Amino acid sequence: MKSKQPPRQSAKEAAVGYLSRRDHAEKELRLKLKNRGYSGADIDEAVAFCQDYNWLDDARFAALMLRNGIAKGWGLMRIRQEMKMKGVHDAIVSQLLEQDEFDWFEHAREVAQRKFGGSPMDTPKEQARRFRFMQYRGFDFEQIKYALNAEEEY
């Protein structure tokens, strides 16, 4: 059986390598370094080093995730869940969303229009299918109702 060898590069080098590829949340970076076999002290030192140089910033990472989620056609609930899975602290997410003036109702409408076009929603089965799709995307009930009934109101 093969025993795990200590990593060849320092924790700082590994952290910088990860952050050079893409932004990470602090929790996510700590987990990656831990899985590579670095000690807790080395991980703490590497994270502090990256934060000192502003290479690791959870607020910037959360803003990036918000923009990417919107571009993917996700709703607020899905984006919030993705941020939680990546380890972004709830306080950072709340602060970011308080500053945000994005119109989630219009976004839901655009996503529904892109997915379903002008095809009629004539059966309860079709309506349920569309509601499930929009829920999966992370929109709440009011946003879904607005998005799917928007063309009927005009």
UniProtKB/TrEMBL annotation:
Residues 11-50 form the RecX first three-helical domain. GO terms for biological process: regulation of DNA repair. GO terms for cellular component: cytoplasm. Keywords: Cytoplasm. InterPro entries: RecX_HTH_1st, RecX_HTH_2nd, RecX_HTH_3rd, Regulatory_RecX, WH-like_DNA-bd_sf. Residues 57-97 form the RecX second three-helical domain. Residues 103-148 form the RecX third three-helical domain. It is found in: Cytoplasm. It comes from the Bacteria. Its main location: cytoplasm. HAMAP family: RecX. Modulates RecA activity. Belongs to the RecX family. This is Regulatory protein RecX. It comes from Photobacterium ganghwense. The lineage of its organism: Bacteria, Pseudomonadati, Pseudomonadota, Gammaproteobacteria, Vibrionales.
